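quick one if you have a minute, typing this from the bus. theres a chain ive been looking at and ive put its sequence and its fold in token form underneath. please have a look and point out which stretches look like helix strand or loop to you. anything you notice is useful, everything is just below.

***
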Amino acid sequence: MYYAFFGLKQPPFKITPDTEAFFEGGNRGAILEALIYAITHGEGIIKVTGEVGSGKTMLCRVLQTRLPENVENVYLANPSVSPEEILHAIAFELQLPLARDATRLEVMHTLNSYLLERHVQKRQVVVFVEESQGMPLGTLEEIRLLSNLETQQHKLLQIVLFGQPELDENLRQTQIRQLRERITHSFNLAPLDEADVRAYLAFRLHAAGYHGPDLFSPRVIAYMTRASAGLTRRINLIADKALLAAFAESTHNVNLGHAKAAVRDSEFSEVPATRVSSPLVYALGGLAAGGLLGVAALAAYLALSAPRDVPLSVAAAPAPAPVGAAVQPSETAAAETPAAETAPAVQVSAPISAPVPPADLLEQRLLSTDEWLGQVGPEAYSIQLLGTNDPELLREYLKIIGKYLEIEKVYVYRTVANKRPSLTVLYGTFADRYEIRRVLKSLPAELQANLPYTRTIQGIRAEIARHRS
């Protein structure tokens, strides 16, 4: 929305990894070159660790594009599988002709034959394992056994483990010390310092088509570095929201107030905050010093500038999110943390006895949600699309959602955000995280603009219960 205002051709601070916008500062470029060297020289098992949001996925994606053509990639995004399943997962990615009920010995034999064939053809096979800190210890041990596939002079399979610092803790355990000793190279993605953050912001802006003076002053950059802890994902979130706050005030200078508003509106803020349902939450909520007049002006701008033949973007949904500060935007969905005792009590949904006008889609979804929550098991998952404290805007938004998703699978419940009644929008019922990740990736860009994330049914029920008591 603010792109034209700042002379940008595309979003400068997307959190989705874009290999065309790989920042080589902060030692990232050097680590990339070292990884390429280690893989092409057959160095066995390689480990890359870094905090959440430090850029591991970006590095992994870029690495796959920079390797020589004779290197064949196997990418495992969901390594939380049993030792028996990891072999089948690799065989599946390599499209090996194996039955589902093939024994471990059969899979290993077929895999070894395939790797020997590739070695004769002077080709390499590399397995990239993301989120490897979530691997069971038995599966990590199976990874070590895979590294034993070799000729007298060469490893037949290269393995690169990407994980959070917890991976190092797992590897320190005695029962898998043999795997630890097989790791030939270990790299760590350290947080960016202030100079790196300045270079990173300039790099991303220029990559998006910006050619003007610096938008972020040294004082703002210093604050953003501290607030983000130097993690690129957090930097992207803060920068994006700060630019939006500046746009709401019609200024091209991002000041400290804009940056602080962006941090307050983020999940990692130390200040009690709510889930961000839209990048406009603070701009439209008056936090960007625009007040009610600013809200009205920006809403009018959106209404006048939105193309009539294109559905209104989700990013224009002006709402603080419904989830209280205790709810975290992660797959663990730690919604069981007690909410603030000062949060006002609200009704979960409209009384069932009240008549529901057929045309009132919002009331229909509220009632359907009561029925759904009464039937679905606590171990299931759903996707939170956004939250809002404006029922009328949500009624319009539901019409937009209906153009992309089955409206019968869209659910709405009442909650509290920032001590104000609010509404949360969910989509679907999913049995496991693998399925929900696939759906999240397939959502259209209009629905991904609000950064949808995984919720557990157990966490949703706990949140509702807190606000009913």
In short: The first helix runs from residue 28 to 40. Confidence is low (pLDDT under 50) at residues 270-358.
